[in-house]
Design goal:
about 5% strand, 5-stranded mixed beta sheet, single chain, mainly alpha
C-alpha cells in the first residue's frame, strides 16, 4: 500500500469568510448594529473621540462580532480607560477586524485583556502575531524561590492566564490550527506542572532531599498533547520503589503540594486514573503500579495508558513503568473482547448523561462525538498494537494516519475520521473560549448557536446555524456509523441460522457413531474421521476452565460452521483444521467472538482451512495472525517493492532487540504470505501475479535480513569500508516465479580491491553465515525462508562467498553446461549496485557470449532424461508433474535451451522467467505460434496445478495421486466442481503432458540437426 499522508482541513479553512470581512465593512458608510445598541454605540463614539475611527469599529462589530453587545461593551470599557491605545489599534483595518471578533467571541478574553491594564494593547498585538512555534517557545515560567504556597499559586495563575490569553486569541484568529492550539495548551500545562513541582520541592526544604526519583505522568488528552482550551489535566504521581518510609512520606507530601499549587489557579486536577482510583493513595510506586495492573488491570485502564506520557520530575521513572506495562497494554494475541468492554464503557457514559437531548447536544460524549472517535482509535490500537509496534502512538491523528499507511483502515475512512476529529475539536475550542468553562454541549438557544457559528467562521447570516448543523451532523453521522461498525461488529444481532441437517449433526457431535451418517449426508467424504474432529470441536478445552460465554459462543457457531464448511472444496480438511484451531485458542473467547461477529473473516478462514494444511498450521500456531484476515477486505492484492521494503524495515526497526527483530521479520513474511494466499484463493490474483508477489516478498525479506546480518557482524567485527557484496538470485527467485514454499537459491559475491590479506573474505563469510541464521533459524514465529546455496561455484565444496574475480574465472574456465543453463535465470537482487552491474556483465558474457553448440544441446537433453529416470519416477499411484515426462522441467529446459541457442544474437531473448522467455521466443520466430500456444497453455495448467498442491503443504509438492477420490478436493480447488471433476482433471493433465513432451522432443531434435 502506498503510504498516503492524511490530507485534512484545519480550522483555517472554516474561517475563509472572515478574510473578506475587511473588504465588506470598509465599504459601509455606517454599521448596521441592532437598534437597541444605539445608546452604547453613541457612548463609544464619545469615548473614542474620533468619529471615523469609531464608525470603523462599529462596522467591524456589526460584520464579524459573534456577540455584538459583548463586543461593544468591551470596546466601550477600553475606550473609557485606554482611548489612545484603542485608537492606535483601530488605525489598522485588519487589527480592527481581529479586535472586534475577539471581543465579541469571548467574555473571558475581554476580561483578561482588561486585567493587563495599560499593557493590554501589547498583549493583544503579541497574540495576533504568534505562530505555534513562537508561542510554544515563549511558554517559560520564571522560576522564583517563593516563601509560601499562596504567593507561588498566585504567580502560577498569572502566568497561566497570560499564556492562555495568547493561545485563545491566536486560536480565534486562526494563527493556530486546531491541533496547534491543543499542542500549545499541552505545552502550557506541561510547564505549569514542572513549575509547580519545582516550587513544591523548594517549599519542602530539606525534606525534598530524601525523596529520590519522582515522576509526574500525564494521562488523557494531556498525555497525548491534545489538551483543549478548558480541560482537566489527568495526572499520576510515581515514585521509585523503596522501603525507606521517610522518602515515601516526603514524596507523598510533594505530590500533595504540587496538586495544591496547580489546582489553586491553574488547572483542574483529576487523579482518578491512578492505579486503584479514588480509593488508592495519591502517590504510586512503580512496583505497586505494575502489580496492580497485572493483577487487576481492566480494558479501560489499558486504553488510558495508551496516552500516558512522563512530563515532569525524573522522566526515566515513567518511561520504565510504561515499558514494563507494554505487555499489559499491548497484547500479542488478538483481543476482540476489548470491543465488548469498550462498548460497555460507552454505554455507561451515555447513561450518565441521562437526558437524551443532552446526548445529542454533547459533541464529546454524545452520538458521533469525540469520545466515540477516540474509542475507534483506541480499540484498533489495543487490538493490533501488540503485533505491530508501528501503531503505538499517543495522538489520535497520528494513529489514523498509521492505520491508513499500514493497511488497518481504508485511506478514505481514515481521512474522513481525521476531518471529523478536527472539526469536532474546533467546535469544542469555540464553545470553551467563551467563558473558559469545561463545556461540550451545543447551546440550546438560537442566539448562542448563531454566535457559535460566527466564531467558527460559518457566518452571521440567517442560514449560518443551518450550515453549521449540516456540517456537524455530516461528521457526527459518519463517526457514529464507524463507531457502530468498529465496536459492535456483528454483535447487534446474530441473525444467521443453520440448516436443520447441520443442527442435527452438531447436536450429535458428542456421539461420533450418531454424527457420522449425518456428516456423510452433508457431503463429508471421510465422515468417520470428521466425526472425531466434530466431537473435539464441540467439547470443552482440556486443562483450562472455560467460561459460560465460551460455551454459549461455540453452541451458536457450531451448526453455522458446519453449513459453511460443507460447501468448501475439502470439508473434511476444513473441519480438521477448525477443530485444531479452536483447541489451540483454548478458553479464550475473543477468537470465537471474532468468528461470530465477522462473517467475512469467518468465511476466509474456513476457505483457508479447506485449501491449505500449511496455511492452517500458521493460524493454529499463531491465532493472533487472524488480524491479517480481518484486514483482508481493505488490503490491496498487489503491493509495490518499495512499499514492502519500507514496511518490513519499519516493523523490524520498531523492535528493541535482535530476537524480537527476527520475530518481526517472520511475522511480516507470514502476514504478507497470507495476504497473497488469501487473494489467490479469492481469485483476485492471476497465477503470474501470485508468482510476482511472492518474489517481491522474498526480495524484501532478503534485503532486510542482509541489513540485520551486516549490523550484527559490525557490532563485533570491523567491516572494511571498501568491502562490496551482492546477492545473485537463481532458480525461481531469479526468474520472478516464486511459488509457495520455494527455497531461495542464492550465490554471494564480494569484492575488495584494497584488501590484500583475505580479511574481507572472512568478514563476507561471517555476514553470509549470519544471514543464513537470520532467515533459517526457528523462533517462536517459525522461520523466514530456507536457503539453497548448492548453485554457487564449486557447489557444496566451494566457499560460501565468491570473489568477483573468482566468479569470472570459474565461469570462463571451469563451469559445466548445466551451470551456464542455471545462470539464464540468474539476476542480482540485493547488495552493492555497482558490484551488481559488474556481476551482471560477467553473467551476460558467460551465458550469451556464444551460441550454444549442438553437442551442448544434446548434453542438456541427456541431463533432462537422466533427471527423469532418477528423480521423476512415477507409478500407478502417483504422477510427477515437475520431473516426469511432459512436466514443468520439460518446459524449463526447452525454453532455456532455445534462449541459450539464440540469445547471443538477439538480446530480446535474454529474459529470466519461463513464461516471458516463451513469449519472446514466439515473437522472434524461434517457436511457431501454434507450438507456443500449446506450450504456454500447458505451462499455465501445470503451474496452477503445482500452485494448488504447494499451497496445501509447507514442502515443495510435485506428487499427484491418481486416485479420483484423493484428487476430488484438488479438482475443486482447480475450479472443477462437477462430480467427475477429478477424472476430467486427470484427462486434461495427460493430454497436456503428452503435447509438451512432443514439443520438447521436436525442438531438441531440430536444434541437434546439422541443418540448425
Amino acid at each position: 500500500m502506498l503510504r498516503t499522508r492524511l490530507i485534512v482541513r484545519d480550522n483555517r479553512a472554516q474561517h475563509a469568510n472572515r478574510g473578506q470581512y475587511s473588504v465588506i465593512l470598509f465599504t459601509m458608510a455606517r454599521a448596521a448594529l441592532a437598534s437597541d445598541l444605539a445608546a452604547l454605540a453613541d457612548r463609544f463614539k464619545d469615548a473614542i473621540g474620533n468619529r471615523r475611527v469609531a464608525d470603523r469599529m462599529l462596522a467591524a462589530i456589526a460584520v464579524v462580532a459573534p456577540d455584538e453587545r459583548l463586543a461593544l461593551a468591551f470596546s466601550l470599557r477600553l475606550a473609557d480607560d485606554y482611548a489612545d491605545d484603542l485608537r492606535a489599534i483601530l488605525a489598522d483595518r485588519a487589527a480592527t477586524t481581529d479586535l472586534a471578533f475577539c471581543l465579541g467571541s469571548s467574555e473571558l478574553i475581554g476580561t483578561e485583556l482588561l486585567s493587563f491594564g495599560a499593557n493590554w494593547k501589547a498583549e493583544f498585538e503579541r497574540a495576533r502575531g504568534e505562530s505555534c512555534d513562537s508561542l510554544v517557545a515563549s511558554i517559560k515560567f520564571e522560576r522564583r524561590d517563593f516563601s509560601d504556597r499562596r504567593n507561588a499559586a498566585a504567580a502560577l495563575g498569572v502566568f497561566k492566564r497570560r499564556m492562555f490569553l495568547r493561545i485563545a486569541i491566536a486560536d480565534l484568529l486562526d494563527r493556530l490550527s486546531v491541533m496547534e492550539t491543543a499542542r500549545a495548551m499541552s505545552a502550557l500545562a506541561d510547564e505549569c506542572i514542572r513549575a509547580a513541582l519545582d516550587t513544591a520541592q523548594h517549599l519542602l526544604g530539606d525534606r525534598a532531599r530524601a525523596i529520590g526519583k519522582f515522576c509526574v505522568l500525564a494521562m488523557g488528552k494531556l498525555g497525548a498533547e491534545e489538551l483543549n482550551l478548558s480541560s482537566d489535566i489527568d495526572l499520576v504521581y510515581l515514585h521509585e520503589a523503596t522501603a525507606d518510609s521517610t522518602a515515601l512520606e516526603a514524596a507523598a507530601r510533594l505530590a500533595e503540594i504540587t496538586t495544591e499549587l496547580l489546582a489553586a489557579e491553574c488547572f483542574r486536577i483529576d487523579m482518578r486514573l491512578r492505579p486503584g482510583g479514588r480509593a488508592a493513595p495519591l502517590l504510586t510506586t512503580v512496583d505497586g503500579a505494575v502489580g496492580f495492573y497485572q493483577a487487576l488491570g481492566q480494558t479501560w485502564e489499558r486504553a488510558a495508558l495508551l496516552r500516558a506520557r512522563p512530563v515532569a520530575g525524573t522522566l526515566q521513572v515513567g518511561e520504565e513503568l510504561l515499558n514494563e506495562l507494554a505487555p499489559f497494554i499491548y497484547r500479542r494475541y488478538l483481543d476482540f473482547d476489548t470491543l465488548r468492554q469498550l462498548r460497555a464503557m460507552k454505554r455507561q457514559i451515555e447513561a450518565e448523561l441521562r437526558d437524551p437531548a443532552m446526548v445529542e447536544r454533547n459533541i464529546k460524549l454524545g452520538r458521533g462525538g469525540i469520545r466515540e472517535l477516540e474509542f475507534i482509535v483506541q480499540a484498533l490500537t489495543l487490538i493490533y498494537g501488540g503485533r505491530d509496534p508501528r501503531l503505538r502512538t499517543r495522538r489520535t491523528l497520528d494513529a489514523l494516519e498509521r492505520f491508513d499507511s499500514f493497511g488497518y483502515m481504508p485511506g478514505d475512512r481514515a481521512r474522513r475520521l481525521a476531518e471529523a476529529y478536527l472539526f469536532l475539536r474546533d467546535v469544542e475550542h469555540k464553545l470553551q473560549t467563551v467563558a473558559g468553562l469545561q463545556t461540550h454541549a451545543l447551546p440550546s438557544n438560537p442566539s448562542a448557536m448563531r454566535a457559535l457559528a460566527a466564531r467558527l467562521g460559518v457566518g452571521k447570516d440567517y442560514d449560518a446555524i443551518a450550515r453549521l448543523l449540516s456540517q456537524l451532523n455530516e461528521h457526527r453521522d459518519f463517526v457514529a456509523t464507524q463507531f457502530r461498525q468498529t465496536l459492535t461488529g456483528g454483535e447487534e444481532e446474530f441473525a444467521a441460522s443453520a440448516s436443520h441437517e447441520a443442527r442435527d449433526a452438531w447436536d450429535a457431535a458428542m456421539t461420533p457413531g450418531h454424527s457420522q451418517p449425518l456428516l456423510a449426508s452433508l457431503g463429508f467424504d471421510r465422515p468417520k474421521e470428521s466425526a472425531q474432529h466434530l466431537r473435539a470441536l464441540a467439547r470443552e478445552p482440556e486443562h483450562v476452565h472455560a467460561s459460560p460465554r465460551r460455551r454459549e459462543l461455540i453452541e451458536e457457531l457450531g451448526p453455522l460452521l458446519l453449513d459453511e464448511i460443507r460447501t468448501l472444496p475439502d470439508p473434511d480438511l476444513a473441519l480438521l483444521n477448525l477443530s485444531d484451531f479452536i483447541a489451540a485458542v483454548g478458553a479464550r473467547t475473543s477468537f470465537l467472538a471474532l468468528l461470530q461477529q465477522h462473517p467475512a473473516t469467518r468465511r476466509i478462514l474456513l476457505r483457508l482451512f479447506a485449501s491449505s494444511a500449511y496455511l492452517s498450521t500458521i493460524f493454529i500456531r499463531h491465532p493472533d495472525m487472524l488480524d491479517t484476515l480481518v484486514r483482508s477486505d481493505i488490503a490491496r492484492p498487489r503491493r509495490a517493492a518499495n512499499e514492502l521494503a519500507r514496511d518490513v524495515n519499519e516493523l523490524v526497526a520498531a523492535s528493541t532487540d535482535f530476537e524480537s527483530k527476527l520475530d518481526a521479520l517472520r511475522f511480516f513474511r507470514h502476514q504478507e504470505f497470507l495476504r497473497i494466499a488469501i487473494a489467490d484463493l479469492a481469485g483476485d490474483l492471476t497465477l503470474g501475479e501470485v508468482q510476482q508477489e511472492l518474489t517481491l516478498l522474498a526480495a524484501a525479506v532478503l534485503n532486510e535480513s542482509i541489513v540485520l546480518a551486516r549490523a550484527d557482524v559490525a557490532s563485533r567485527f570491523e567491516i572494511p569500508p571498501s568491502l562490496r557484496m551482492c546477492v545473485i538470485a537463481m532458480g525461481r527467485l531469479g526468474a520472478s516465479e516464486m511459488s509457495y514454499n520455494s527455497d531461495l537459491d542464492l550465490i554471494f559475491v564480494y569484492d575488495d580491491r584494497v584488501d590484500t590479506t583475505g580479511a574481507s573474505r572472512v568478514i563476507a563469510s561471517r555476514i553470509v553465515q549470519k544471514l543464513i541464521a537470520v532467515l533459517e533459524s526457528r523462533t517462536r514465529e517459525g522461520y523466514a525462508y530456507k536457503l539453497d546455496l548448492r548453485l554457487r561455484p564449486s557447489g557444496n565444496a566451494g566457499p560460501l562467498v565468491t570473489s568477483l574475480a573468482g566468479f569470472r574465472e570459474y565461469h570462463r574456465e571451469s563451469s559445466a553446461v548445466w551451470e551456464r543453463q542455471a545462470l539464464v535465470r540468474a539476476r542480482v537482487v540485493a547488495g552493492d549496485v555497482e558490484l551488481g552491474r559488474e556481476v551482471e556483465t560477467a553473467r551476460e558474457e558467460f551465458v550469451f557470449g556464444r551460441k550454444l553448440a549442438r553437442r551442448e544441446v544434446k548434453e542438456i537433453h541427456t541431463m533432462r532424461m537422466r533427471m527423469e529416470r532418477e528423480i521423476g519416477a512415477e507409478d500407478k499411484h502417483r504422477l510427477n508433474i515437475k520431473q516426469g515426462p511432459g512436466g514443468l522441467v520439460d518446459l524449463e529446459f526447452l525454453t532455456q535451451m532455445l534462449v541459450l541457442r539464440y540469445g547471443h544474437r538477439d538480446s530480446a531473448l535474454r529474459l529470466h522467467g519461463t513464461a516471458a522467455m516463451l513469449a519472446a521466443l514466439e515473437s522472434a520466430g524461434v517457436v511457431a505460434r501454434d507450438d507456443a500456444a500449446v506450450l504456454r497453455d500447458g505451462y499455465h495448467f501445470l503451474s496452477l496445478l503445482e500452485n494448488r498442491l504447494r499451497i496445501d503443504s509447507d514442502q515443495p509438492a510435485w506428487a499427484l495421486p491418481t486416485s479420483t477420490d484423493a484428487l476430488r478436493p484438488l479438482a475443486r480447488r482447480m475450479g472443477l466442481e462437477q462430480a467427475d471433476g477429478a477424472s476430467a482433471m486427470l484427462k486434461e493433465l495427460a493430454a497436456r503432458r503428452t503435447a509438451i513432451r512432443l514439443m520438447f522432443e521436436h525442438y531438441f531434435a531440430a536444434e541437434q540437426s546439422p541443418r540448425s
